[in-house]
Amino acid sequence: MLQIEKDKGAIYFNNDDGSALKKTLEKLVPSSIFILVDSHTNTHCLPQFLDKTGLKDNATVIQITPGEEYKNITTCLEVWNILSQKGADRSSLLINLGGGVVTDLGGFVASTFMRGIAFINVPTSLLAMVDASVGGKNGVDLGTLKNQIGIINNPEIVLVNTSFLNSLPDNEINSGFAEMLKHGLISSKKYWKDLQDFSLKNKEITNRLVWQSILIKNEIVTKDPFEKKERKALNYGHTLGHAIESYCLSNPSKEKLLHGEAIAIGMILATYISSEILKFDKTELSQITQIFLKRYPKVNFTNNDIEAIIQLLKHDKKNRNGQVRFVLLRDYGESQNDSIVDNALIFSAFEFYKNFTLN
Ligand code: NAD
Description:
Layout: E1 2-4, E2 10-13, H1 19-28, E3 33-38, H2 39-44, H3 46-53, E4 59-64, H4 73-85, E5 93-98, H5 100-112, E6 118-123, H6 126-132, E7 137-142, E8 145-152, E9 157-160, H7 170-187, H8 189-194, H9 203-223, H10 238-250, H11 259-277, H12 282-295, H13 303-312, E10 325-331, E11 334-340, H14 343-355
Parallel strand pairs: 2-9, 3-4, 3-5, 5-6
Antiparallel strand pairs: 1-2, 7-8, 10-11
The structure holds nicotinamide-adenine-dinucleotide.
Nicotinamide-adenine-dinucleotide is lined by residues 38, 40-41, 44-45, 66-68, 71, 98-102, 104, 124-125, 127-128, 131-132, 135, 137, 146-147, 164, 167-168, 172, 175, 259.
């Protein structure tokens, strides 16, 4: 079994004998155990989880509706109420069994219920395995503005088991893979290249690359848990990506994008801007754009859409004194935080995206 040991937030990878959870339960001795699922993970992941852990008769299941549009304070209220009605106390434990929506929202609910109860993340989507469940960022959206309400607090442990990926739809695999591609861009060209072999058909490759992504994310968040410096690199592509995601969520005429699909567009735009400001290699920019556009849907943005997306940037959490700050790349693995980018260059980046033709 692969693992990353730490006092809080240790990560266990394919711990098939269940020893990590057993040890944690022995340490915590929870007064009661709750498992948060959405209806998809209830169907596809909960039976396997209960079977393996023997928690069938010892846990209360709380189900929420799947989807980003339910990652909000109304859903938190429902979960807080159920915890309260079912007699949860400060020694209760919440196990978040699901994708990034369940781990983000469940972590926030647990961190605030009775000023904080213990929680464990069991990520079931690729995105949650390589990104959302690791690093202690928990929270919910405010209207369509992403992750505006939240807290940084680590789970007791994270239990990653790639067998959950067997039931994950292809578009959700792609969405998670976008965050792995981000790890490639911000860490090294070698990892970016290795990622081009990613295929769920090959378990050995899947496990190796998923674990590598977890290591990259973990190394960064361990160095800088509160996002003062290094952790900002993990926002690569997210400044415009989040604004695009919010815009498409709130605009009925636009197709709703999955998180990774929006971030993929954000990374193309950020790499173009990097090539203009930091001289990121233009040939690499073109190859990177090919790779993203082969995997992710191309969205048609009008000038009005772009104006509205730029307006949404003012809610980005990296802003200071009203100025939007971008993470840019000089090269693979060489990021520069807090770059100020003018609107004209953002428009040019969208033009580049719109006019790009695939080989
Ligand atoms: P999600 O939780 O909505 O899961 C995607 C879909 O897959 C859902 O319909 C879910 O029910 C389903 N699903 C999950 N596991 C399944 C399985 N094994 N089999 C079948 N269906 C399954 O979304 P996501 O893509 O996992 O995560 C996106 C969220 O993560 C966003 O809200 C994003 O903001 C957040 N995020 C957080 C961090 C962080 O550091 N906290 C980092 C990146 C992203």
